[in-house]
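Hi W., the guanosine-5'-diphosphate complex you wanted:
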Amino acid sequence: SNDMINRRNIQWFPGHMMKTLRLMEANIKNVDAVLQLLDARIPMSSLNPEIQRITEQKPRLYVMNKADLADPALTNAWVKYFRASGAGCVAISAKQKGSAAQVRTAIEKELEDLIARRAIKGMGGARIRVMVVGIPNVGKSTFINNFAGQVRAKAADRPGVTRGKQWVTVGNYDLLDMPGVLWKKFDSLETATNLAFIGSIKDDILDIEELAMGLLSQMQKIYPEKLAERYKLSEEQLQLGPWELLEAIGRKRGMLISGGEVNTERAAIMLVDEFRASKWGRITLEKPYQMEQTQEQEVQE
Ligand code: GDP
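Structure:
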């Protein structure tokens, strides 16, 4: 639905995000590579086109974070997809210990040539400077803390927490930690809703019932079995329209108001929370373009 994001109140691109983009532009010349964190559940929607534009000239590494929440087969497909595009790519869970080492290896592979050139020039000890970027809530603080091996930046569970840029020195690395940033105008409503599903757009500008219904209809399409299992839905219930399904799930959970009506707002909040907490299982909402094409072909043949 077009009402999910309240168009009269689009204030999710506040001034500090504009400032961050300018900061990136000003600092891009000071780094050897750019590491863009993506959310493994929505790799394409979490890829910021503004960041893409600013960092075009630099070696790139995509780090798909929150892989523990995503569908493993699709995560593999996405890693292949990004590597085929000529960029480095690894999938990690920033909360898990080994993830920093994985990323280090990937950076060194991506910068192989540069490191070799520096060694020849006797500059083998030069520090590797990496700009770390990503949308709000993608897990950037968690990742940097893990990489640094100690608590540096405060991980916050809500998007839009403002922080300035800062250099974080770890071993022979200098990480330039940029604040999380979205972009001005979404090219598609699907991108916007995907970002809302994972909590990168502040919930207070969203209609929570629309959001929950959007999630339900996505799930009905791509993971009906997971939805049925979580909420003990029958075949018939799985075919319901999103509003009726929201009501049915609310009723099952006993979320009623006077007169026996379902408290759909409470049901919606519960659904979105449970999705974000991965209670529905490991889910990826987007497939690489080629994969969708192939599947369509298969259906046609
Ligand atoms: P930032 O806004 O990009 O700095 O994101 P944070 O590091 O503050 O993380 C946002 C939320 O995602 C926090 O609740 C983190 O605990 C959580 N988070 C970060 N990385 C992961 C991960 O790999 N897996 C899971 N399940 N949660 C993560």
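The two ends are 32 Å apart (CA to CA).

W.
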